[in-house]
Amino acid sequence: MKRGFFLFLLLLAALMTVSACNGRRDTDEHEQETHAARPKPAPVATRPNLADSLQLMVRQLDTARRIGCYDEDFARLMSLHHAGAQRLAGVEISQGKDSTLRAMAQHVVKSHEKDTHVLTLALRRDPPGGQEYRPGNARDPFVRRITAALAPLRQLPPLPGNVDADFATLMQVHHRSGVALAQTELAFGRNAEVKDAARRFVRDQQQEIKQFQRWLQAYASASGK
After folding, report:
1. Domains of the chain in sequence order
2. In this protein, which residues make up the domain named DUF305 (predicted)?
């Protein structure tokens, strides 16, 4: 009798253990399903900044396709150059505090969009001819001029440390590079309409360089630098 009762207790204990294990497994599976169904937090979007915008432009200029035609290659490079200025201006518009620089940034966005459109239309009306230089030849005069024009973008001056002053500083560098690009087109290009656009780029960007310089001088005086 005692032996039968002892076996009954062992069986009961085994059944209770199995039930508990099943219950834990069901609970664990439910928690896993609930966790899997829970939406993952969205990645935090980082605010664009001036340094990243400039570096992106440099990478695009370095990897831009060049076919060996003066006018078309200039137009492609200048369009990327303009797009870089527009991104810099976008940072100033969204994060800058100075009303003068924000107005200049808005002008950059609009004028550069128009300039790019002008270049595109000019080449559509008068498509470029055959190859005029070898893009891979570092000793070619056109290649050397383009390389020299883009070099300042890799040799940046120290930045003051706030968005407004940094924007004005970088735009001076950007525009000097743009003027050198446009002067290269004037020296080598053959498309009259593209050369007219390049002549206007030189004039407009030289004027804007002076505006940025005046702003930086006033900033330095006000901050005692």
Report:
1. 50-223 (1.20.1260.10)
2. 57-119, 161-216
